[in-house]
Amino acid sequence: MPGATPGTAPLSDHISGHISASPSVTPLAAAASPAPVAASPRRQAPAERPWLAALLGLALAGLAVFIALPVLALLGMSLWDSAGDFVGLAHFTAYARSPNVLNSLGNSLWLSALSATVCVALAYGYAYALTHSCLRGARLFRAVALIPLLAPSLLMAISLIYLFGHQGLLKDLLLGGNAYGPFGIVTGSVLWTFPHALLILSTALATSDGRLVEAATTLGASRWRVFWRVTLPASRYGLMISWTVVFVLVITDFGVPKVIGGNTQVLATDIYKQVIGQQNLPMGAVVALILLLPAVLAFVAEQHLRARQSANLGVRAVPFQPQPSPVLDRALFAYCALIALALLGVLAVAVFASLATFWPYNLTPSFKNYDFDLVDGGGWASYGHSLVMAIGTAVLGSLCTFVSAYLVEKPRQFAAARLWLNAIASVPMAVPGLALGLGYILFFNAGWNPLQGLYGSLTLMTLCTVAHCYSVAHITQLTALRQLDAEYEQVAASLGVPFWRTLWQVHLPVCLPTLLQVAGYFFVSAMTTVSAVVFIYSPETTLASLAVLAMDDAGDIAPAAAMATLIFASAALGRALLGALERWLVARTQRWRRR
C-alpha cells in the first residue's frame, strides 16, 4: 500500500490528502450516479452521436479490461483449479481448515480496529485544534501533519526499527517488549494513516453550524459542555467515516506488517506468502477475496454514512468562527506541537539513519547507503523505473479520469452506458491493492489473453497503478465538472457548437487546476505504491518501493531507509513542481479566478 497510499486504497479517502483541491472541489465526495437526462434546447447533431458512442465504448472497454476483468479473474481462480477444472468452494474449505487462518483473520481485525481507534482519537484532537480554536501556526501544523502522505508506509516501519528495534534509540522505553509485532504494526499504521483521518475530520468539523454553538453559548453553556453536547454529536458521521477509512487502510496494508510485523500473521502478508512463497495462486485468490470482503463492507458503510452526513448539513448553516481562549489555545498548541514533533521525528530518524555510515557504531554522515548498486533491489535503475512510471501514471491517469468523468456527467444520451461507466470507475475504491495486483497476474498472464505480452512490463505496472487509484481521481474530476452550470452546454448546443469544441475551450480550461492536482495525486501514489505492483514486476522493471522490500528482506536496513527517503523527497519535489505549474498556468490563462 502506498503511504497512501496515500493510499491507500479501497476507499475514496485512501489518498484524499494528495489532492489539495479548492474548497469547491473536494476529493472526498462520494461516488454519485450520472446526472439525469435533461431536455436539451436543440437535438444533438447527428454527427456527434457516433463520436460520443465511440468514446463511451472505448472508455467502457478500457475500464472493463483493466479494472473489472482482473477482479473477476480472482473469483474464477478461487473456483477453478490450475488444471481448469471447477472445484467450487474446495479452496475456501482448504484454507478454512489450515491451522493459522483464524490467527491471520483475528490479528487483521483487532489490529486494524485498534489502529483505527487510536489514529482517529489523535486526529480528532488535532483537527479540533485546527478548526475550533485560534491556534497559532495552524497552517504550518496542517502542512506537517500531511507530510506522511508523501512517504511510503515502509518508511514509517523502517524508522520504528531504528527507534524501537534491537539496537534502537528508544528500545528501553518498551521495558523489554518487542517492537516486531502488534506494537510495531499499530504504531506504524497510526503514523502513516494519521493524515487520512485528519483530512476527513477537519472537513467534518469545518462544516459545523456556528448557529448551534452561538445559541448554546448564549444560554450559558461552558465551552466543555458545548463540545460534548454540540460539536461532538455534529461530527459523529465524520468520526465514523474516518474510523472506517483507517480500518480498511490498515487491514489491506502490506508494507508495515511485512517490515515490522515479525511473526504476527495478517491476511495481507498471507496473500504474499501464498503467491510469492508457495506459488499457490488459487489459495492466494481465496485470501484476496477474504480480504476483499471487509473492504467492500466498509465501502458500503462509508457511502451510507456520507449520505447521512450530507443530509445532516442544513442549507442555512453558518460557518463556525472560533473565539480566543488563552488557556485552551495554549493547551491545543502544545498537543499539536507534540504530535507534529513525533511525525517529524520519525521521518528525521529514517533520514539520519540513511546517512549514518554504520548504525549505531559509526554515525558519521555519508552517502555510503545511497550506493544502491551494491545491494539487492535493482540498484539505481529501480529508482529510474519509478520516476518513469510515476510520470506516465500522472499523465495517463489524469487524462483518462477527466475523459471518463466528462462522459459520465456532461452528455445527455446513452444513460445506461454512462451509468455502467460510473459504476466500473468506482470499483477500485473497494478493491485492495494486493487483490487487484493478483487479479492482474491471473488475467494478463493467461495464455489465451492477447495482452499477455504486457505482463511484467512497465506499461502494465503503470496501467495497474492508474486502475488502483482510479476511483478517487474520477470522483474528483466529476465533482469539478459538476461545478459548471448546464447552461454552458445548452448555449453551445443552441449555437451549433460541437461537444468537442466546448470540451476543449470550456470544460478543460476551467477544470485545469483540478486536472493538475489529480496528476500530482497519481504521481505521488505511483512513487509510493507497493501492494498494487508487488506481484506483476519483473527483474527488469523493479521499482524503488519494491527495492525497499528487497533490501529489508536481505537485512540491508540502512540502504532501505535511504531508498525510502529518496522516494519521499522525489514525491515531495514532484508535487511541488506540479503545484508551481498549476499556479503559473492559472495566473497566465485564468485571471478571472482572482476577481
TrEMBL record:
InterPro entries per record: AminoethylPonate_ABC_perm-1, MetI-like, MetI-like_sf
Transmembrane spans: 51-75, 109-128, 140-163, 183-205, 226-251, 281-301, 332-360, 380-407, 419-442, 454-473, 518-537, 557-585
Residue ranges of coiled coil: none
Ranges for domain ABC transmembrane type-1: 105-302, 383-579
A Pfam family of this chain: BPD_transp_1
Keywords in alphabetical order: Membrane, Transmembrane, Transmembrane helix, Transport
NCBIfam families the UniProt entry points to: PhnU2
Annotated family: Belongs to the binding-protein-dependent transport system permease family.
Protein name (record): 2-aminoethylphosphonate ABC transporter permease subunit
Native organism: Curvibacter cyanobacteriorum
Biological classification of the source: Bacteria, Pseudomonadati, Pseudomonadota, Betaproteobacteria, Burkholderiales
